[in-house]
Amino acid sequence: MAALAVQGEAGIDANGYRDYRGVPVVGAWVWLPEYDLGVATEMNAAEAYRPLYLLRYSFWGPFALLVLAATDALAHAVTEGDKGYIIEISGINLIPFVYLGAKHMVTGYDHLLFLFGVIFFLYRMKHIAIYVSLFAVGHSTTMLLGVFFDWNVSSYLIDAIIGLSVVYKALDNLGAFQRWFGFQPDTKIATLVFGFFHGLGLATKILEYDIAPDGLLPNLIAFNIGVELGQLIALAMILIFMGFWRRTEGFWRHAYTVNVAMMSAGFMLIGYQLTGYFVA
User: Fold this and answer.
1) How confident is the model at residue 157 (pLDDT cuts 50, 70, 90)?
2) 80-116: b (≥16 Cβ within 10 Å) or e
3) Are 188 and 60 spatial neighbours (Cβ–Cβ below 8 Å)?
4) pLDDT at position 247 over 70
5) Torsion (CA) 165, 68, 77, 104 in degrees, nearest 10
6) Please, are residues 193 and 64 in contact by the beta-carbon 8 Å criterion?
7) Would you call 201 exposed, middle or buried from its count of C-beta atoms within 10 A (0-12, 13-18, 19+)?
8) How many CA atoms does the CB half-sphere of 148 hold within 13 Å?
9) Is the pLDDT confidence value at 16 over 70?
């Protein structure tokens, strides 16, 4: 490249090549006649193409989640089959409701996204336990109270706030609040507060199915136990994945991209739910 620049040529090598370290790089060169000087430079290919990778993840990740959001089996709502079961049964049915609660959590992409964001930069089990417990307390409280006292709240608005929780956590992981506003929100309080909304979101769905009052409280408690068991299962899978990923060189290289994609997914969830609210 330097020889080409000295010869008065200019160009780029976007296909890439390996430098003296064996690392893939891209290069550019130019002749500056006003200075009688040739300039050549090169950059790691991964760094040079990072904006393109970011754009790709920011589009396809949220797009996939939007497709899932339109699928009853993976949506925040209880599935149609489970809906029919809930409507038909009466009395105390602990085991079935434990199963339904666990199923809801491990297939609830909005809960999993928020949980993934919460533990993204947490390494010590003590800290993970604190944040997950705060989320569980918030989730359990409003789910039980919302159904038991028949709180009538728009499920679309609550789910939009749940999408906002995903956006918040992604921005928090990116350090945006400190850079933009000069302060850092209390992450523990935020986790608890958004946990309230996640639980209320589930309560609004259960209320739509007119669950039988006979055995209501024991069934709700069983359902909540299932939710927490499902959360532990989901948490274990996320921690295993994060444990392997953090050992690779790609973790810090892609952490920013993943959180931007997660933020974009949160915005799409907000838009999806607000659209449903205004057209319903």
Assistant:
1) very high
2) eebbebbeebeeebeebbbbbbbbbbbbbbbbbbbbb
3) no
4) yes
5) -80
6) no
7) buried
8) 16
9) yes
